[in-house]
Amino acid sequence: MEMVSSSKQKIDFLNLMVAELQNQNPLEPMDNQQMAAQLAQFTQLELTENMNTSIQSMNESMAKLNMSFQGAMLVAEFDYAKSLLGKNVTFYSNEHEQSVTGKVTKVSIDHKSGKAMLNIDGKVQYPNGDMSDDKSFSVDVYALTEIL
Questions:
Q1: 42-148 has CATH 3.90.550.10 classification
Q2: Fewer beta carbons within 10 angstroms: which end of the chain, N or C?
Q3: Greatest alpha-carbon span in the chain
C-alpha cells in the first residue's frame, strides 16, 4: 500500500467536496451540518498528524541532547579519574571484607559499562594482623570512600 501525504489527502478531499457540491441535486442540497462535520474531522486529522510530527521531532532532539549529555558526563568522569593518578585513596573491598588504602596507578575505561576504572595498588591486612604484599585492584571511580 502506497503512503499518501496529508497535503495530497487534503487536496483530494477538497476536490471530492467540490465535485459533490457541483453535482448535487438543487432540490435536495447537501446538508450544511454534514459538510461542516466532515471538514472538522479532516482538520482534526491534520492537526493530529502535525502534532505527531512535532512529538517525533522533539523525541529525536531529546535523544540527541541525552547522547550529548552522556558523552559530556563520561568525559568529566574520566577527567576526574585521571586527576587521581598517583594519589592515595581508600575503598571497600568486598572480596577481602575490609577497607583498602592504596595508590592509583592507572585509569582505564570498562568496555562493557563505559565507566572509568582505577587500578589501585594496595595492601590487605590478614586476620593475624600481617599485611599482604601489594595487590592490584580494579575499582570503579564511584567506589572510593576517601581520597588522601
A1: no
A2: N
A3: 110
What is residue 3's predicted lDDT score, i.e. its pLDDT? Answer: 65
Q: Which three cell numbers stand for residue 14?
A: 477538497
Q: What is the pLDDT of residue 1?
A: 55
What H or E segment, with its residue span, contains residue 36? Answer: helix 32-83
Query: Distance (Å, rounded) from C-alpha 34 to C-alpha 103?
Result: 81
Task: Give the tens place of pLDDT for each residue, 10-49.
Answer: 788 788 878 887 888 777 777 778 778 877 887 888 888 8
Q: Give the whole-angstrom CA distance, residue 31 versus residue 34.
A: 5
Give the number of residues written for the chain. 148
* C-alpha span between 146 and 148 (Å, rounded): 6
Angle, alpha carbons 141-144-148 (nearest 5°): 115
- pTM above the 0.70 mark? no
**Closest alpha carbon to 78 in 50, 114, 126:** 114
Q: Which three cell numbers stand for residue 124?
A: 590487605
